[in-house]
Amino acid sequence: MRKLIIPVVLMLVMVQSLVAQNAMTGWEKWQYMMGAWNGEGSGQPGSGSGSYTLKPKLGACILERKGVTDIPAMNGRPAVHHEDVMIIYKNKDGNPVKALYFDNENHVIPYDITYSDNRIILVSEVNQGAPRFRLTYEKMEDKLMNIKFEMAMPGAPEDFKMYLEGKNRKTKELSEMTP
Fold first, then answer.
1. Which of left, alpha, beta for 55 (phi over 0: left; psi -120 to 50: alpha)?
2. pLDDT tens, residue by residue, 27-68
3. What is the C-alpha separation between 33 and 35, in angstroms, rounded?
4. Helix (H) or strand (E) holding 82
């Protein structure tokens, strides 16, 4: 009986490892970003700081980005506390080309995703009478990233203007985070 149990257990471990590796297929361009990040930046709402995490969820079928940003009160403007969640998901071919963003200001933004050498670029669709958004993650150096959030006003959907920009430093690798 022992001779039979050991090979079966080894086979199950190998199958589980292959399934886990296959689940991460398609997320290679996001691998660098997975983990916990802290950042500081500035823009139209003021200067502030924030943090976010990016983790695979649902057996790595999606990536979940959760973020918090705080901008202190300044010049008569009240403090801002911003929370958001973004779900990045794959199309039927297994390529991560879509994302859906939600925040505590009741924004829901669907994004299309494109890639360049060191950038992941998310751009919202054109909606009549509504602003358009572009979110760019740019890998700078080891554990450092620049994030830009730009807006284009209705009537000029390709004329993006900087709204916020900040430098982010990785504080934890995905393997160091609790599930």
1. beta
2. 999 999 999 999 988 777 778 889 999 999 999 999 999 999
3. 6
4. strand 80-90
Max CA separation in the chain (angstroms):
77
Going by C-alpha positions, the residue among 87, 104, 106, 88 that lies closest to residue 96 is 88
What is the number of other CB atoms lying within 10 angstroms of the CB of residue 122? Answer: 22
Strand partners, 68: 51, 83
State the CB neighbour count (10 A cutoff) for residue 84.
Answer: 18
CATH of the domain at 157: 2.40.128.20
| Two structure tokens written together for 142 | 């080891």
For residue 1, pLDDT over 80 is answered with no
3-state secondary structure 39-59: EEEEECCCCEEEEEEEEEECC
Q: Which domain holds residue 134?
A: 2-176
Of the candidates 122, 127, 75, the one whose C-alpha atom is nearest the C-alpha of residue 97 is 122
Q: What is the 8-class DSSP label of residue 1? A: -
The number of distinct structural domains making up the chain is 1
Three-class SS of residue 133? strand
CA distance 162 to 140: 19
